[in-house]
Amino acid sequence: LRKEAVTVAEDGNSPNHRARGGAKGGGWWARQIHFWLSTFGFAAILFFGVTGLTLNHAESWESGEPTSREFEGVLDAIPEDLAAPTAHGSRFSVADTLRQRHGLSGLVRDVHVDDGECTVIFGAPGYAADVFVDRKTGAYKGQETRKPRIAFFDDLHKGRYAGPVWAFVVDASAVVTVASAFTGLWLLFHMRGRRTAGLVAVVVGTLVCVAACVFGIP
Question: Which end of the chain is more exposed for a tag (fewer CB within 10 A), N or C?
Answer without folding.
Answer: C
